[in-house]
Each structure stands twice: as C-alpha cells, then as structure tokens.
Amino acid sequence: MAILATPTYLLTGFLGSGKTTLLNNWLKQPEFSDVAVIVNEFGAVGIDNDLISKSDEDTIELTTGCLCCTVRGSLVETLMALFVKRQQGQVRHFNAVVIETTGLADPVPVIQALMTTPVSGNFHLAKIITTVEAPQGLSTIDRHAEAAKQVAVADDIVITKGDLVAEGHVNVANALKTLNPGAPIHNTAPSAPLALSAILGSGSLETSAQFNGPKYWQNADVVKQDDRHHHRHDLNRHNSEIGSFVLTFDEPLRWQEVAAWMDALVIAHGEDILRVKGILEIENTDQPIVVQSVQKLFHPPFALEQWPDGTRQSRVVFITKAISESFVREVFDIIRSARKPSASPSILSELELTGATS
Ligand SMILES: Nc1nc2c(ncn2[C@@H]2O[C@H](COP(=O)(O)OP(=O)(O)OP(=O)(O)O)[C@@H](O)[C@H]2O)c(=O)[nH]1
C-alpha cells in the first residue's frame, strides 16, 4: 500500500504576533491529538511550559497527546528523523504536522524545504497560516520584509489582538488584502479564539488540501473589483513594491503557453514572483487546472473535479515584488503572439495527475 505524504501546516507570523497563543488554543482541541508540532527554537517560541513535560529529548509528548519537537540542525533533518521514528514506532503515530516558524524567519526557505526532496515525498505542504497582530501588524510589515513575505505567501491569515484596537480588525484586514487578495482573513481574540474548523472548513487536518477551494479566487475577485472602484487601501511606504494583482482570461489557454509564461517569469524574476495561484481553463481539457508557486518553486499542477462557483474562467493571482501587472501580461502576450498552429494536446494526457486530482 502506498504511503501517503503527511499533511504539513506552516504557522508563521512576525515576532509576538500571536502564533503560540493560537497554537496553544488549537492544541486543546481533540482534532490535534494526532499532530506532531515542530517549533524552530524551543526556548524562543515558548509553548506554555505547563503543556510540555520537561525532557532533554528532541521529541516530546505533550500532555495533550501531541508530539512536539525542536529543529536541531535543519528542518529537513528534523522532519526526516520524525518520519523514521514514526516508522520504527519510536514515537506515537501522527497524521499531520504543524511547524511554527520563528517570528523573524523568511518563510520561503521553509516552504522550499517542504516542496523539495527528500521531504516532499513524505510530507506535503497543506496550508500556510500567517498571524498578523492588529495594533502593530501593519507598521511591522512596513518595516520588515520578512513580515510582508509571511503575509504574501499565506493561504489563510489570522488577525490577532483585535481586542486591543478600537476599530478592531477591519482596517488591518483591508490593508492586508492589497498584499494577498485571495487568502481568507480570520480574527482571533482571547474572548473568541479562532476555531481550527474556521481554517479547515469541512475538511480535517488530515484531509485539508493545500488548495483552499474557490474561496481564494472569490476573495481575489472582490479585491480586484474594489481596485476598479479606487477603494484600495495602501498598505505601507517601505514595502510598497510588494503588491498583488489578478489576471483573468475568458478564452481557454494553451498549456504550453502557460508553462512557457511561468518559466519565463521565474527564470528572469523568480525571487520577486512571491506567490502565484491560478485556476486555469486549458484548451481540450474539461477540468480546471490549478497552478501554484512560491518564488521559484512550482507545485505540480493538478486538476479539480469541477469549476468552483461554476464559472469557467481562468484566474491567476500574482503577489510580486516590483513586478508590474503590465509586465506580466506583456510576457504572456509575447509568448502567445508566437503561437504555433498545431493543436494543443490535453494537459491531462501530459501530466502525471494520478492522485493529484481533488
Ligand atoms: N490582548 C491580546 N493579547 C494577545 C493575543 N494574542 C496573543 N497575545 C499576547 O501577545 C503576546 C505574544 O503572543 P505569542 O503567542 O507568544 O506570540 P508569538 O507570535 O508566538 O511570539 P514569538 O514566538 O516571539 O514570535 C503574548 O503576551 C500573548 O498573550 C490577542 O488576541 N489579544
């Protein structure tokens, strides 16, 4: 029987933005009983001491039943060691992993480690969840590129400490949408901690796919409409070169041209194409095809069973640093203007999609 890769969740967010508080709430929920938690720096991250039995071991069983381990050496080594320990029965079985990064970390190397071998065969990146605190979050993003990147790559954003700001979460949420228009934005506060189910939707930690459904593009569409009506909220001054835009295409696209477009962008500007999430109507292919990248790394494309919200339209969200919408469009136009007349084969016959459809 094939061993399925373990869904792995990345919890990121700037120093003091409330990652541990959120995680501690989730650790108390029954869904978390079969989860391994990895923290970058044990002391620095400070999961509540009373949740953790004192131990010199790398891997610790929390009183809630979860496993907790520290990154000693590289994250890759830690994950592979955890995998082997599980196989050998040295740690109790776990069905999902949550990695809490240090607040100052650029999340991209961690994401890249998860998306490349040997880790990617045994663990798959399920979701990136980013915390942003309401009182100081925007000025932090303004001053620290890592904080901006943490938001840019998020699948879900959690605004914390809204209880400390008079206008609550609203202004922060509006500003964050300019950085990452598709990610659902959630709120958490001591009086109303965010339930895990808000992030997972109808899925569980084991089944929640990295593709967070139609929501991402619906959100992105709303922000695009908002831009048209000049209601866009400027996020900041110093990181103003990070921005987002959505390209839509009503006609079916050719897979080879899309692939050439993505290649060209990544080869020339990989570092600055922070995140791409697209759902595409491809010629000769009934199913919508999902493409995703984080900087230079592309997830394998996969087909969805059906179109989210029933709309057959290609939509691609770009989150970029100093790369304009017109430039990205122009690159695609140039590739398409060199179109060859031959019929495009179905992408489904080209791609190894077995097991990747969802
Ligand atoms: N009032 C309020 N305080 C919060 C909230 N979330 C977190 N805090 C407090 O903010 C401080 C930092 O929270 P942590 O959960 O430790 O933040 P963190 O992101 O894990 O911090 P680092 O590990 O240093 O990066 C703690 O004192 C928390 O009690 C919130 O929603 N409201």
Automatic annotation (TrEMBL):
Taxonomic superkingdom: Bacteria
Coiled-coil intervals, chain numbering: none
GO molecular function, one term: hydrolase activity
Record-linked CDD domains: CobW-like
Statement: the UniProt record of this protein carries the keyword Signal: no
Keyword Chaperone belongs to the record: yes
Keywords of the record: Chaperone, Hydrolase, Nucleotide-binding
GO cellular component: cytoplasm
Residue ranges annotated for the CobW C-terminal domain, each copy included: 242-336
SUPFAM superfamilies noted in UniProt: Hypothetical protein YjiA, C-terminal domain (SSF90002), P-loop containing nucleoside triphosphate hydrolases (SSF52540)
General function of this protein: Zinc chaperone that directly transfers zinc cofactor to target proteins, thereby activating them. Zinc is transferred from the CXCC motif in the GTPase domain to the zinc binding site in target proteins in a process requiring GTP hydrolysis.
Family to which this protein belongs: Belongs to the SIMIBI class G3E GTPase family. ZNG1 subfamily.
PANTHER family: COBW DOMAIN-CONTAINING PROTEIN, COBW-RELATED
Protein's name in the database: G3E family GTPase
Organism this protein belongs to: Actibacterium naphthalenivorans
